[in-house]
Each structure stands twice: as structure tokens, then as C-alpha cells.
User: Which sequence fits this backbone?
């Protein structure tokens, strides 16, 4: 059986970078589960669908969030990036590339999930943006949370309108610098993942 060579999506880097519980193991169970799903996707030529109201909102308000962020910061007309990037180890499609910076936008479900007081972000988002920087050759990245109204069809009950709320309570930004040492770890892990994938495939 022949399948394509494994490359990690930037949005899934954290899935393979979790550390195994036992020092005798190279890969964590989370990583192995991810790779087994990936192999199934190749064999059956389909993608595993992950659905939730949170993901759906993020997709539906993506353009709205970008426009709102641009208007608040007087950045002019911004267009969501459509270019897919790939190298021998990873793949990814950043939301926006603007003035030598890679951007990724997150739309919070509501004001209670909006990170108003947080001073740090989840490690998986940091890893994702490190991948985007590596693919694009840029050295800075920004994670931007915006708080947009939730589409009515996704809301059970009365929808909250955030339109009149001050922008300082609707936008939260986090800056990141490129970390080449982390990228080296990712590339080493991808090589280990390929060995595991080969074992899975050779078993048939």
C-alpha cells in the first residue's frame, strides 16, 4: 500500500508534540491517535469532520471579524489569505499576511469565552503560528481574538448584540516571535511520525 508522505498541518502541530507518559515511548498516545486517523483519511480518501457551533461561528464570521479589525485599526481593505503554504515537513494556510506579520483570527463564542483578562494563550495556538511563520519565512505573528455577534441560527435563545460595545472590549491581540529551535523539534517529530505511519501501513 502506497500513501503520501506525512506532513503536519500547522493547526495540528500540538497533536504530535505532546510528550509521552513513558520515557521509553517516542510518541504520545495523542500523537498516535492523530496519526492513525490521518492514515485512515489516506486509505479511505476522506477527511474526518469535526463539527461544533463554535467552529461554525468562526467560519461564518471570519470576513466580518477581519473587516471589524481593519476598521478599528484603520488598516484599509484586507483580504483573507487563500494561498496554501507547504514545505517538506508541514502545511498551512494563514488567515492573513500583512506588513511582514502572519495573523490568525479567532472569534469567541460569547463575552464569557473572550480572553479579556488573559495574558497568555493556549500552547496549541502558539505552535500553530510558529508553523505559519516558518512556512512564510516571516519572523513575527499575531493572534487576534474578536468578539462578534453570533449568527441567529446558531443561538438558542436571545442573541447578545456586541455592536455598541467599545472596541477595547472586543479585540484582544497576542504577539509572537519566531522560534527556530521549536521548529527543529517539530521537524524531528515529523520524522518520528513517518516511522510510526510506515509501521501502520506495512502491517497490511
Assistant:
Amino acid at each position: 500500500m502506497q500513501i503520501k508522505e506525512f506532513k503536519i498541518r500547522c493547526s495540528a502541530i500540538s497533536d504530535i508534540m505532546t510528550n509521552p507518559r513513558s520515557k521509553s515511548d517516542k510518541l504520545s498516545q495523542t500523537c498516535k491517535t492523530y496519526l492513525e486517523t490521518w492514515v485512515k483519511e489516506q486509505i479511505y480518501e476522506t477527511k474526518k469532520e469535526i463539527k461544533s457551533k463554535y467552529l461554525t461561528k468562526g467560519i461564518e464570521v471570519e470576513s466580518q471579524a477581519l473587516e471589524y479589525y481593519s476598521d478599528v485599526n484603520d488598516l484599509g481593505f484586507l483580504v483573507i489569505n487563500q494561498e496554501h503554504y507547504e514545505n517538506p515537513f508541514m502545511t498551512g494556510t494563514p488567515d492573513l499576511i500583512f506588513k511582514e506579520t502572519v495573523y490568525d483570527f479567532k472569534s469567541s463564542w460569547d463575552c464569557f469565552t473572550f480572553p479579556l483578562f488573559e495574558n497568555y494563550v493556549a500552547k496549541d495556538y502558539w505552535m500553530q503560528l510558529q508553523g505559519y511563520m516558518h512556512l512564510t519565512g516571516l519572523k513575527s505573528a499575531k493572534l487576534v481574538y474578536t468578539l462578534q455577534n453570533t449568527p441567529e441560527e446558531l443561538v438558542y435563545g436571545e442573541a447578545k448584540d456586541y455592536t455598541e460595545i467599545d472596541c477595547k472590549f472586543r479585540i484582544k491581540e497576542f504577539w509572537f516571535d519566531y522560534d527556530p529551535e521549536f521548529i527543529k523539534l517539530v521537524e524531528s517529530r515529523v520524522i518520528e511520525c513517518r516511522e510510526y505511519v510506515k509501521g501502520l501501513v506495512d502491517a497490511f
Observations:
- The CA atoms of residues 33 and 195 lie 14 Å apart.
- The helical segments are 13-17, 29-44, 53-60, 62-73, 123-136, 180-202.
